[in-house]
Write a structure and sequence with these properties.
With 284 residues, the protein is α/β, with parallel strands linked by helices. It has a single domain, classed as Divalent-metal-dependent TIM barrel enzymes (TIM Barrel). Strands 1-2-3-6-7-8-9-10 form an eight-stranded parallel barrel, surrounded by four helices. A two-stranded antiparallel ribbon has the order 4-5.
Length: 284
């Protein structure tokens, strides 16, 4: 009998501001088993770098109190001396400082019990050009992957529409280039620009974590009923890959969504219900 399973997580930033206690408590009430923790407004990156042990204790206590398991720490770009630094940063000294901060984040994540950390894939540095920006990012991501592994944590990046990996083929190239690097894959970033989903699905073998929400060409974060992402095909392919992992519901309403009456809780519950049905179809 296959011992394959998919867990469901909730992004801590989905439902607006609140104290960590309020956020963890609300996500528990919604019936999630896992939580993805934001590094901006939930458990701040600056505080983590300053005292990894203390912040890990905070996360452990919250997870124990609310019976949640920490899935991924949503880090993004890394802070060093108060500056956000990209993995494609051409200044070697800045990259070294960034790696020092990242090691402290990994210490926190390992102690807190996170499965993974999600960092930045890197952006185009105009004066460097694409190829050199890609080379700098690949070198840095390789070092970050190794540092995370030393702390028992997987390192992921999100191949987003604003990153160097804004074309599926470039994301495949980076995954093949950096041994051990895995992705937190969100189909929205490619669907919104009209990429064929079959191209994006080529990233599934390199995926360690996923974000789930609906999107349509030209319409990011559209309501579930207008969505064009075929999650049936995705879950079926995950089963074929014998994928074990966690899918996080990620949907927060900005001014446009709020004005249109799109409610984040409704969207995440609809998406989770849909995915649970697909997991039952293909994984049971």
């Amino acid at each position: 009998m296959d011992n394959l399973q998919i867990g469901f997580s909730c992004h801590s930033r989905n439902y607006g501001p609140g104290t960590p206690d309020e956020i963890f408590g609300f996500i528990q009430k919604l019936g999630y088993a896992y939580i993805d923790v934001d590094s901006v407004s939930t458990i701040g990156q600056a505080e983590v770098i300053d005292n990894p042990e203390r912040q890990a204790e905070v996360v452990r206590e919250l997870c124990e109190k609310y019976e949640l398991r920490p899935a991924e720490y949503f880090l993004g770009t890394v802070l060093a001396d108060g500056e956000k630094l990209e993995t494609s940063q051409p200044d070697l000294r800045k990259r070294e400082r960034m790696l020092e901060s990242f090691e402290r984040v990994c210490r926190f994540a390992g102690l807190a019990g996170f499965r993974s950390i999600m960092g930045s894939a890197g952006i185009l540095i105009a004066e460097e050009g694409f190829d050199r920006s890609f080379e700098h990012a690949a070198e840095t991501l390789g070092k970050m992957t190794a540092i995370a592994a030393d702390h028992g944590v997987a390192f992921h990046v999100e191949p987003s529409q604003h990153s160097l990996l804004n074309v599926p083929a470039k994301a495949v190239e980076m995954a093949q280039r950096v041994q051990g690097l895995r992705y937190t894959l969100d189909f929205l970033h490619y669907q919104v620009h009209g990429y064929d989903q079959r191209e994006t699905m080529k990233l599934l073998p390199y995926t360690g974590h996923m974000h789930a929400r609906q999107a349509a060409v030209g319409w990011g974060k559209c309501p579930f009923e207008y969505g064009e992402i075929d999650y049936d095909a995705i879950v079926k392919r995950l089963r074929g890959l014998r994928w074990n992992g966690v899918i996080a519901m990620e949907f927060w309403s900005g001014p446009a969504e709020t004005a249109a009456g799109i409610h984040a809780v409704e969207q995440t519950i609809l998406m989770r219900y849909h995915l649970k049905g697909l997991v039952k179809k293909y994984y049971r």
